Amino acid sequence: MKKLASVTAAAALLLALSACGTTDVSQSSAPAAAAPTSSGCDAVKPTTGPVAVTDVLGRTVKLDAPAKRVAVLEWQQTEDLLTLCQSPVAVPDVKGYSTWVSAEKLPDGVVDLGTRGEPSIDALVGAEPDLVIVEATSADDKLVKQLEAKGLKVLATTGADATDPIKNMLHTFGLIAEATGRAERADAVEAEFNASLQQGAQKIKDAGKAGSEFVYFDGWLEGSNVTVRPFGQGALLAEVGESLGLKNAWKGEVDAAYGLGQTDVEGLTTVQNAHLLYTSTADADTDIMPALRKTAIWSGLTAVKENREKGFPEGIWTFGGPRSSQEMIDAFVAAFTS
């Protein structure tokens, strides 16, 4: 399962947007956003009044009131919005989200924008959002400019930052909370996340597993070939593991944003003494484990022979927000204490 970069979406959107006029979203005739599906939302009340949020591009996004009709072009931010007790009006690949993200459930009736790489512009405009949340990396991001030319308010976020992935995850969550008038809810969720991290670290310490080494990976299939993608230094999931008192054994080259590496099954021989953890999925088209298990190299790995390999539960979005990160904590604790 590959994380699609926001620049891919940008390239696909530009031509579709360039021929369009300006959309007035001040008077929406579309149905209201669905009721929130996250737990603990009964007492959550958004603030009122004008909103001004400085996004990751240094732009000040001004709204007359907290955003109520929010379209989101990536899954982490979709999860974040749901955790904040607000349902999106439109997201890309509803089926894919429901397969890969278990932390927060999408309600029925959300407009499906198609693929994350090439979302439908007609569907996006038709959803009549008062805010569109995107991932962007530079001040001259063409997607942001084109969407603004359509009369749409755009909040730019950073998909990943390997220098401090947990900080970036929480910052993204906070930006969305500001734009929707739900900072109080965000503070409560962040406190829950930090408490879960502390409690998880204590459980691992009590089990005598602090300092244990791990390597987490997912990957993809190309015919009969398996590409293994280790989560190295700077990957969100790996940083969660290290914050629990564990040690990430993968020291290979990784990308600067997501902290992800690339190797094959033979590359795992260099870390075979570590616990081998991996993404589980019921999707046979993307599950690499059956192919790995057929190889003699996999069967011969020390971790495999000593039963120190374990799949994390299905649906943990390894690029997610606070709730997905809490699922990561629970999975690490279970892997090292049960």
Automatic annotation (TrEMBL):
Q: Does the keyword Cell membrane apply?
A: no
**What are the boundaries of the signal sequence?**
1-21
> Where's it found, cell-wise?
Cell envelope
Entry keyword Oxidoreductase: no
**Which parts of the sequence belong to the Fe/B12 periplasmic-binding domain?**
69-338
Which domain of life, per UniProt? Bacteria
* A GO BP entry: iron coordination entity transport
Q: Which GO terms describe its cellular component?
A: outer membrane-bounded periplasmic space
Q: Which UniProt keywords apply?
A: Signal, Transport
The record's comment on protein family reads: Belongs to the bacterial solute-binding protein 8 family.
- Put simply, this protein is called Iron-siderophore ABC transporter substrate-binding protein
| Naturally occurring in which organism (per UniProt) | Galactobacter caseinivorans
List the lineage, top down: Bacteria, Bacillati, Actinomycetota, Actinomycetes, Micrococcales
